[in-house]
Amino acid sequence: MPEGAAKFYDLPLDERRKLIAEWAGLPVEDLAAFTPEGGLTAELADHMIENVIGVYGLPLGIARNFRVNGRDVLVPMVIEEPSVVAGASFMARLALSGGGFFATASAPEMIGQMQILDLPDPAAARLKLYEHREEILEAANAVDSVLVKLGGGAREIDVRLIETSPAGPFLVLHLIYDVRDAMGANAVNTAVERLAPLVESITGGRVHLRILSNLAERRLARSRCTIMLDALAFGEYSAEQVRDGIIEAWAFAASDPYRAATHNKGIMNGVDAVVMATGNDWRAIEAGAHAFAARRGAYTSLSTWGKDAEGNLVGSLEMPMAVGTVGGATRVHPAARAALKLIGAQSAAELAQVIVSVGLAQNLAALRALATEGIQRGHMNLHARQVAIAAGAEANQVEAVARRMVEEKAVRIDRAQEILKEWSK
Ligand code: MEV
Predict the structure, then answer these.
(1) Does pTM surpass 0.90?
(2) Tens digit of pLDDT for each residue in 138-190?
(3) Is residue 396 classed as helix, strand or coil in its secondary structure?
(4) CA–CA separation, 102 vs 304, rounded Å?
(5) Catalytic one among 132, 193, 379, 418?
(6) 3 found inside a domain
(7) Do 37 and 125 belong to one domain?
(8) In what order do the strands lie in the sheet with 109-117?
(9) Which of 208, 267, 305, 353 is the most exposed place for a label (fewest CB within 10 A)?
(10) Pocket-testing residue among 252, 256, 265, 362, ligand 1, by greatest number of atoms within 8 A of Cβ
């Protein structure tokens, strides 16, 4: 990271924007998309959804210190929760001690589902679909010649028989579809809708639902990092204490769904923030993550933490990551376009690698805090600022009101109001 980076958070907002543009090699005007004036206008929003009456802003911060597969990345994060951006940046700095994050992504293969009902002989219909595999794949490829030219398209079919259900027996046909750099919902949904008549004629049944599955288990992103033991010590905590505390905290999530839900929520704090910044569908990512976490029957942690032969802390995260760099809001929303430029990912796979690395860093931030001093201490300063704003503090009063409440250990809206009243006299 460039010199002077340590003081980044102390700089005035415009200075930060200038520095980020400089580091990214972009004209500062490109980052105007992150301001209310230069970002999404109501007129543009009006083309995105229905009944638009305005736009809704959220903070966008830059997580620093991320090195993913040897490349330094500035990571834009959109999130309303304090401590997330700082936590990710700090853990990414610790990960630098082990070379940063090492990430991969599998082929961008999505699953389109077709439900086939009213079958006189479901078992035979299942086999007939396999007999017509080539024809089905060809028909699916005929739907989107551009995607096929780019190297994507139909790859495989898979058919399951659901023997008993409230609707009787039925078949589920999975169309495996490589969507390249798109998120893929539109491409997959179009393909399975178009295939319905062919599938009905092969099986003699009735095709009911035709829709993408958000359990994108074939489109996984994986990241790992090593935190050198020495980098872990802080305050009164020895490096071993921090390391072992993190591993014990992970063991809790690995064995208990109540804890796993919160543990994974911490991962999603990082993941969703980048998914949102880049205009991707965070509900799809959430759905995929939690279904994947429960894929073996019991809901569990998406990440793992342990130690290597030298005693360093090692972490990994593997999860579905159906994000795109083309299509949808990624290209329409000016801030999403600017965020993608900042990240500088050349493909959806590279974006997925960055996102899963941020998820892993975020997970580490939460576990490190929980395993040592707890999360409230770090949270309080930023939380106090939000309380001050909620109590009506002006921009130039926020910092002072927050500091006073933290000193008094009374971070409450009524106290903030009292302080403001005192000052106004
Ligand atoms: C809060 O947004 C996220 C945490 O609860 C995550 C965790 O408990 O691991 C701190």
Answers:
(1) yes
(2) 999 999 999 999 999 999 999 999 999 999 999 999 999 999 999 999 999 99
(3) coil
(4) 15
(5) 379
(6) no
(7) no
(8) 153-162, 170-178, 109-117, 206-213
(9) 208
(10) 265
